[in-house]
Amino acid sequence: MQPSPAPFDADTLTCALVLTGKATPTPAALRAALVELYPAGNGPTVADVLAGGWLVPTIDGRGLRLPPLSLAEQDARLAAADAPDQTRQPDATAPANNSKGAVTEPEFSESLKGGESREIAGNAVPRFSYYRGGIAATIPHAAITPAQLHTVLTSPRHRAHTEALRAAPVGSPQRATLKKGLDYVTPAGTFTRRANTALERTSGLLVLDFDHVPDVGAARAALLADALLAPELVLLFTSPSGDGLKALVRADPSAAHLDTFRAYAAYLAHHYAPLGLVPDEAGKDVARACFVPYAPDAWLAPAYAPAA
Predict the structure, then answer these.
(1) How many Cβ atoms are within 10 Å of 231's Cβ, its own excluded?
(2) 8-state DSSP, 139
(3) Within 13 Å of residue 157, how many CA atoms lie on the same side as its CB?
(4) d(CA 122, CA 214)
(5) Helix crossing, 173-180 with 159-167: angle to 10°?
(6) Among 39, 53, 64, 71, which residue's Cβ finds the most Cβ atoms within 10 Å?
(7) Per-residue pLDDT of the chain (308 residues; tens, 9 = 90+)
(8) How many helices and strands, by DSSP H and E, does the chain display?
(9) 38: DSSP letter
(10) For the chain, how big is the Rg over CA atoms in Å?
(11) Nearest CA to 294 among 158, 110, 115?
């Protein structure tokens, strides 16, 4: 007589993951843990756990992980991570707070008009630092949302600069200088200055840079059509050079930035290397700069669009 199926719930899953010793176990490791938890043989199989939606394959296909966070869950974690530490002493090296607030120049303010996002699922949308004046500027000018960056990208603010850059000879000092003179963002979060050690608040995002893509249109379409990647895409636009792509993607704020970058990179290299979708290794740095060109066809995930 077959034993009755044993119950399986979130607590049991946690126990199974603890037994594997990893948050992203291999199917074989999970199978061994389930056998240990259900010695009578009446527990779920790995296939049952996957079919029930308890776990999903990792983006590189080698392990299993918890399902991607919903926007509500991600924002709840961000809110918890960003809650002020009441025990922290003021940083004597930090610049004094101006009670009147930073002055935003009219030109920049105008380019952001209509780009403010409302809350998503009752929580604040991601914010990251925006820097004016090129890569030499290391102190942020403002903290903006994905919707505001989309507004800047599609506005004519950087049109002349971007067109001059693309017209300059490839590999020339003039082209390099023009690129370094563009405004930029640090998508991983807000910083007190652009440095890996100066992260103030995480955004739950990271940037993937794809350089020298043979067919930008085909690569863009592939990213938007991928069943695993598409739900994680927040913003996608053509790079300043015109022959590459930049993608802002969601990242679990409770996971290490480097681990998340490597998972995306491994998946993309495995599935889309012929399309040139192999991320620049510099993306592994949390303070990675992402230049802001004129990109009238920039794509923004509907969940992050400003309310009508």
Answers:
(1) 13
(2) S
(3) 25
(4) 41
(5) 160
(6) 64
(7) 556 677 777 767 877 776 776 667 889 988 888 888 888 888 889 998 888 888 888 766 778 877 765 555 555 555 554 455 444 444 433 334 443 333 344 355 555 555 555 555 445 689 999 999 999 999 999 999 999 999 999 999 899 999 999 999 988 999 999 999 999 999 999 999 999 999 999 999 999 999 999 999 999 999 999 988 899 999 999 999 999 999 999 988 778 888 888 899 889 988 999 999 999 887 789 999 999 999 999 999 998 987 65
(8) 10, 12
(9) -
(10) 22
(11) 158
Token digits for 129? Answer: 């630092």
Residue type for 27, please?
A: P
* Residue 298 neighbours by CB distance under 10 Å: 18
Could you give the 3-state DSSP secondary structure of residue 302? Answer: helix
- Between CA 169 and CA 178 the distance in angstroms is 11
Q: Look at residues 27, 108, 8, 78 and name the one whose alpha carbon lies nearest to residue 252.
A: 78
Query: 195, 220, 221, 224: which is closest to 285 by C-alpha?
Result: 195
Which of 124-151 are b and which e, b meaning 16 or more Cβ less than 10 Å from the residue's Cβ?
Answer: ebbbbbbbbebeeeeebbbbbbbbbbbb
Residue with tokens 């998503």: 120
Closest of 295, 184, 205, 298 to residue 241, by C-alpha? 295
Q: Beta partners for 233?
A: 249
CA 2 to CA 257: how far, in whole Å?
A: 46
Model confidence, pTM = 0.67
Q: How far apart are CA 51 and CA 45, in angstroms?
A: 10
- CA within 13 Å, CB half, 168: 17
